[in-house]
Design brief:
The complex is a heterodimer of chains A (276) and B (304). Chain A is built from twelve helices and no strands. With 276 residues, chain A is an all-alpha fold. With 304 residues, chain B is of the alpha/beta class. Helix content of chain B is 37%, strand content 22%. Chain B is built from eight helices and ten strands. In chain B, the strands form two sheets. A six-stranded mixed β-sheet of chain B has the order 6-7-8-3-9-10, sandwiched between helices. In chain B, strands 2-1-4-5 form a four-stranded antiparallel β-sheet. The relative contact order of chain B is 0.16. The chains are: A mainly alpha (276), B alpha/beta (304).
């Protein structure tokens, strides 16, 4: 815990946390080094189509894409599509993490449980998640349940395997020293194994976010009436390149944002790793 | 009182050719350690003294023999026949024989242990490390005997101060120096007020100046506990002759090489407090060094 004198409460605490987050997340983008690359890239994006070196029908200008973004916000309910996708994404993410982390913990902790479950996951996990699509459509029909299940499949395995590996690699010295004091297995799991594996668990969540977004696009492209993947599919059908680009940018932003949130969480919870 | 009767430990190791080969780590060691004494297990690396200490702590089951602490068995020896082995495996199918229990914290014996590489948890601050140990011991107590959170916190601070870590309560181990980390391990071990502390080369990873300071502090704390009517037995593994002689009431010299057995038991009856350079200490140190030197020469003579 941080010493008491640094504690602030209420709205000020929230604001200072948000400030810290923004600083951590955006710091990379506003560094002079990166701006040296970003600004020329954006300029090229605007100028190449404008000068006619690249046909504008293939690569729309930055300003066209920005206008398409504004248009989608105003007339195509972009925000509600995003919220809809995110709602399903977080449902799937929550279910996957709530199952994968405890199962990973138990598998890393106990050999018997490992012997029972590990071969099952080893058989199932190599199936590429998109290969689940046809079966899922038959089982769940087209709709939220199918999308949630597909994202669940994408997120579950990376989280499970990384958690399990982190737990299994726990330094036996730490276990020995806790055991001599008389720690029960449950205390070991809560206070030793979990924290020792904390880094790999957060890492696994990051992989989970990436895989979940992949499955979000695949699932929604196969059917549905809402969501970013659906918008992307529609843009493809009508050959609207600026709208495709808006969807890609939105997905990229969501992935970046979620990973930044996880990074910030790690910094906040794993204070002991900072400054090492 | 710690009694070890006929402790042996065999491992099977896989050789380079993929064949299994037996390795004797400890061979038929019997030892009695009286309460309130400091005893060192001394010997070159690889002589099985650390393995013996882990068997004492109940972190490994001996292949043969029994360890009793105040008459109570620490860990049953491993079964020797195939049939017994199957039975043993069935019994410990779900939970390791080393486990203290699934949900309730309960020490098997009143022991604390200190490791060479500290083994303090890097994810807890100094004070949290001590509170962790205290909480485990407190979970055993019921009703009014069970200490309050604030009492535990105060006790943790008290022992951190005692070990010379005042003002470091909220530092993480990564922010502490090696010597400080070892002090933290010492504070954590002492805080549970154990009757026995086992140390596995506790000061080997600390620089020489820090080491002497730590040794003095250890003796001071041990003396305080003794004066307070709660004597602590310390069993320490060391390969530093000077350290072993200076600290201990008795030095147990292990024979070198695989298959550790007790070679000599050397009592150190110099009165405390001792000086490192006092003639009695120096004399005993020279004697033990001569024994070890002889063994090493014999070994190389055999090798030729």
């Amino acid at each position: 815990m941080i010493a008491d004198q640094y504690e602030t409460r209420g709205i000020r605490r929230v604001l200072s946390e948000l400030g810290g987050f923004a600083k951590n997340a955006l710091g990379n983008f506003f560094s002079p080094e990166f701006l040296c690359l970003l600004i020329p890239l954006l300029l090229l994006w605007e100028l190449l189509p404008r000068s006619g070196l690249v046909p504008e029908s293939l690569l729309p200008r930055l300003s066209t894409v920005a206008a398409a973004f504004g248009d989608m916000l105003a007339h195509k309910n972009l925000v509600s599509h995003i919220l809809y996708s995110m709602g399903r994404f977080f449902t799937a993410f929550g279910i996957a993490v709530a199952l994968a982390v405890p199962i990973g913990l138990l598998m890393g902790w106990n050999q018997k449980i490992r012997a029972i479950f590990l071969p099952l996951w080893q058989l199932l996990s190599p199936i590429p998640p998109p290969a689940w699509v046809p079966m899922t459509i038959i089982f769940f029909g087209i709709g939220s349940r199918m999308h949630i299940f597909l994202m669940f499949i994408g997120i579950f395995y990376p989280v499970l395997f990384n958690t399990y590996q982190g737990i299994k690699d726990t330094d036996p010295r730490y276990l020995a020293s806790a055991r001599v004091f008389g720690a029960s297995e449950f205390t070991l799991l809560r206070k030793v194994y979990f924290w020792h594996a904390f880094g790999s668990i957060v890492m696994s969540l990051k992989t989970g976010v990436a895989m979940g977004l992949v499955m979000l696009v695949i699932g929604e492209a196969y059917g549905g009436t809402m969501g970013i993947g659906y918008l992307l599919g529609q843009a493809k059908d009508y050959f609207l390149i600026p709208e495709m680009m808006v969807c890609m940018a939105v997905l990229g932003f969501i992935g970046w944002f979620l990973i930044e949130v996880l990074k910030y969480l790690e910094i906040k919870l794993a204070v002991w790793k900072v400054g090492r | 009182m710690i009694e070890a009767r006929g402790i042996s430990k065999f491992f099977s190791v896989v050789t380079g050719k993929g064949l299994a080969e037996g390795l004797t780590a400890v061979l038929n060691v019997s030892l009695t350690i009286e309460d309130g004494r400091i005893v060192s297990l001394l010997g070159p690396s690889g002589c099985g003294k650390s393995t013996f200490l882990e068997i004492l702590a109940g972190l490994q089951a001996p292949t043969d023999g029994q360890i009793r602490i105040d008459g109570e068995l620490v860990l049953e020896p491993l079964p020797s026949t195939r049939k017994e082995m199957e039975e043993y495996k069935r019994r410990y199918r779900f939970i390791s024989p080393l486990a203290n229990g699934v949900f309730t914290d309960r020490p098997k014996h009143d022991i604390a242990m200190i490791f060479q590489d500290y083994a303090v948890f890097p994810w807890m601050t100094a004070v949290q490390n001590v509170i962790f140990a205290l909480n485990i011991r407190a979970a055993d107590k019921k009703g009014p005997e069970r200490p309050q959170r604030s009492e535990i916190r105060d006790k943790a601070r008290f022992y951190l101060n005692k070990a010379g870590l005042a003002g470091m309560e909220n530092k993480y181990p990564s922010q502490l120096s090696g010597g400080m980390r070892q002090r933290l391990a010492l504070a954590r071990a002492l805080s549970v007020e154990p009757r026995i502390i086992l140390m596995d080369e506790p000061f080997a990873a600390v620089d020489a100046l820090q080491r002497e300071k730590l040794q003095d502090d250890l003796l001071r704390l041990w003396g305080e506990a003794k004066a307070g009517g709660a004597p602590i037995t310390i069993v320490m593994v060391s390969h530093d002759v000077q350290e072993a002689v200076f600290l201990s009431d008795e030095v147990i010299v292990f024979s070198p090489g695989p298959g550790g057995t007790i070679r000599n038991r050397v009592p150190v009856d110099a009165p405390r407090p001792r000086a490192r350079t006092s003639p009695a200490i120096v004399d005993i140190r020279e004697r033990i060094l001569a024994i070890l030197q002889y063994d090493i020469n014999q070994e190389s003579a055999c090798a030729i």
